[in-house]
Amino acid sequence: MPEVFISVDVETAGPAPCAHPLLSLGACLVDDPRRMFYAELRPLTSEVDPAALAISGLDLDALAAEGLPPAEAMTRFSSWVGEVTPPGGRPVFVAFNAPFDWMFVADYFRRFDLPNPFGHAALDIKALFMGATGEPWERTSFSAVAGRLGLDPELPHHALQDALIQAEVFRRLLAMLPNPSPDPNEERMR
What strand order describes the sheet that includes 90-95? Predict the structure, then answer.
């Protein structure tokens, strides 16, 4: 089953989906970043962590007036994932600090009774970088990884722009990896 790597990023009003709303969602294909998705969501609650809101610069009042209803945003996202994943393909959620982004996306799919096209898994770029380079966890911040890969170490904290940047980080990291060894079962079958 061919894997389709999809870079995903979210901006939220705080650290926990049970308390804080998902505010924006951006995604792009890793191999074709021109194929992208972006939505700003109407907040489900007004509970915010001011520090989180300051990072994204999103305005809750503006989103309440102009954001998509969350169920509609997630339905559109699910449809987009289906459109960019060829028949027989498997979409793979890729993010920098994937546990954070994935938990919001998974929670919102669940809240609105939509199947999660990514299942219960996500590929974390930080962890892949650590495994590929042998760097300790403390050296897997975005700025450290981006700098090592020759990219700008700053993120704009706009979900789509961050997803596009993450896709480039992931592509460069994949290029560093050795080619996988052949499957031993495949050799026996020849």
Answer: 36-40, 22-29, 3-12, 90-95, 123-124
pTM: 0.92
* Residue of 15, 77, 81, 7 whose CA lies nearest to 40: 77
Whether the pLDDT of residue 186 is over 70: the answer is: no
First to last CA, the chain: 21
Beta partners for 91? 4
Q: Which residues are known catalytic residues?
A: 157
- Structural domains in the chain, sorted by start: 3-189 (3.30.420.10)
- Banded model confidence at residue 189, pLDDT cuts 50, 70, 90: very low
- pLDDT for residue 178: 83
Query: Does pLDDT of 187 surpass 80?
Result: no
Amino acid at the residue 91: P
The DSSP-derived string for 68-114 is BPHHHHHHHHHHHHHHHSPTT-EEEEEETTHHHHHHHHHHHHHHTT-
Distance in angstroms (rounded) separating the CA atoms of residues 24 and 80: 15
Q: Give the CA distances from residue 2 to residues 87, 90, 93, 114, in Å, rounded to whole numbers and listed in that order.
A: 9, 6, 14, 23
